[in-house]
Amino acid sequence: MKMDTNQKVFGWCFIGCGTLAQKVAKQLLPSGQHKIVSVYSRSYDKCAAFAQRVGAAACHLPEEAMQTPGVDAVYVVTPHTSHFAYARQALLLKKPVLCEKPVTVCSADAEALVRLAREQQVYFAEAMWTWFAPAANQIKAWLDAGEYGTLRRFVLNCHVDARWYAPRVTNPNQAGGALLDMGVYPLTYMVRLFGKPDRGTCTGHVSKGIDWDEEVTFHYASGFTCSTSISIKDLLGMEYLLIEGDKARSCLFQFHQGGSVKLKRRQGKTEHVRGKCDYLNEFNLVANEIREDLTESRYVPMQVTLDVMAIMDECRRQMKLVYPFEMQ
Ligand SMILES: NC(=O)c1ccc[n+]([C@@H]2O[C@H](COP(=O)([O-])OP(=O)(O)OC[C@H]3O[C@@H](n4cnc5c(N)ncnc54)[C@H](OP(=O)(O)O)[C@@H]3O)[C@@H](O)[C@H]2O)c1
């Protein structure tokens, strides 16, 4: 999605300047459609080095970064355990917030943020980039239009070796583990495609304070069930979506970053929708929604975020997974 070139460049405050912040900055800045106005991270040296590279002001305090003149929205891109505090601070300052996934560690905190955003009438969205991209939305549109016919098979495997990505991924003190780091993608997919389940079941492998893999099944009153298999230590890294009915099928590798997708009909023409799942597309759409004065994203509605957070709470309850900072 391109932006109107007459539009003012959109100003971001980045809270966090780690692995993802750097990747996002690399996509946003060359576009000329976004600028990073201010940055905060706890280590001032790292913050200053990043700020210098991206032409932003390095700030000693998060509120200073959020209130820097020219900031149109705050992007929270820190480990999960700190999302709540930073997002809350920004919403209290009436700043629109795009907050990385998962928005919080537990559903009670997510509910509090959604309540606050509604009270403040400020935009608040989870940065679930998969759903800002065309592929996922197209699959949902095909499903809703009955293009697949009666569903026969649904496979959703989210197996990646994420251990190397950043130390937070396996750190229980930062709510690391498969469910919150990667599971949020397939669970959001299933909620978007089939709605919130009436019941969820989860079995997983927990050791060293985090979950390394799990199987989650959604059960619906109609008798329909769908499952996803999640892992952050699968060396083969198989990430695969298959949705197959008696009329058509789609399959997508690396579905959480899916751009293009095909609808292969049993009879009739194959339809091919081409697109990209990237951060620039996500930030363009979010900037436009904020310009429109929306308080909620069309692409990632707050209720979906809340439903997924409630499911993840339940999965953790069933796996008996409690993070150290939650223990009394
Ligand atoms: N959408 C996607 O494709 C995608 C991809 C990767 C990650 N993510 C999400 O993005 C978030 C950040 O991931 P990352 O891989 O960039 O993490 P990271 O590499 O560990 O970077 C975290 C950054 O947050 C800063 N920070 C600020 N306050 C902090 C606090 N209270 N505790 C810890 N760090 C704090 C850190 O700097 P200081 O230590 O100086 O504070 C650092 O700059 C996570 O929520 C993750 O799930 C999303």
Please, could you describe this protein's structure?
By secondary structure, this protein is α/β, with parallel strands linked by helices. It folds into two domains: 10-128 and 281-298, NAD(P)-binding Rossmann-like Domain (Rossmann fold, 3-Layer(aba) Sandwich), CATH 3.40.50.720; 130-277 and 308-326, Dihydrodipicolinate Reductase, domain 2, CATH 3.30.360.10. The protein has nine helices and 14 strands. It has helices at residues 19-28, 44-54, 62-66, 80-92, 107-120, 134-144, 178-194, 279-291, 302-319, and strands spanning 10-15, 34-40, 57-59, 73-76, 97-99, 124-126, 151-159, 199-207, 210-219, 225-231, 239-245, 248-253, 261-265, 271-273. The protein has an eight-stranded mixed β-sheet, with helices on one face. Strands 3-2-1-4-5-6 form a six-stranded parallel β-sheet, with helices on both faces. Strand 12 (248-253) and strand 13 form a beta hairpin. Helix 5 (107-120) runs antiparallel to helix 9 and helix 7 packs across helix 9. The longest helix is centred in the last third of the chain and has 18 residues, at 302-319.
What's the gist of this structure?
With 328 residues, the chain is of the alpha/beta class.
Which CATH architecture of the largest domain would you pick? 2-Layer Sandwich
> Low-confidence spans: pLDDT under 50, at least 5 residues?
none
Number-wise, the strands total 14
Evaluate the radius of gyration: 20 Å
**Which sheet architecture does the biggest sheet show?**
8 strands, mixed
Q: Which ligands does the model contain, each kind named once? A: NADP nicotinamide-adenine-dinucleotide phosphate
**Fraction in beta strands:** 25-35%
Give the count of helical stretches.
9
Shape: globular
Please indicate the count of domains.
2
